[in-house]
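Table S2 (text version). Query chain:
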Amino acid sequence: MKKFTCLLISTISFNCVAVELNRFDIVAEKYKQSSLDRKTIENAKMQGECLVQIKDLTFKKKDKFDPISEWVNYRSVSLLEKYSPCETLIMLEVANKQIRAQKSQ
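Corresponding structure-token output:
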């Protein structure tokens, strides 16, 4: 029974992940003449991962107020208006490290 339950849960989980990962493919299939090339898709995936890292960087301390994280969060919005997510991530990481280093001195 345990094996059946584990198999059922893993099958459901896999199907949910597969559906989640293929949303773009479904749209691209509908609009084949306008679909993106592989290089553009890979770049978009990289930018998406950078957005996740920005979120992770800006919400490090959830249980107490962190003025540096608040500043990074505030700046990330304005930087994302002008730069790509990966460029923004690089700038915010450098700024975060330097501010924390100055604070500890």
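Notes on Table S2: The chain has five helices and no strands. The chain has two domains: 1-35, 36-105.
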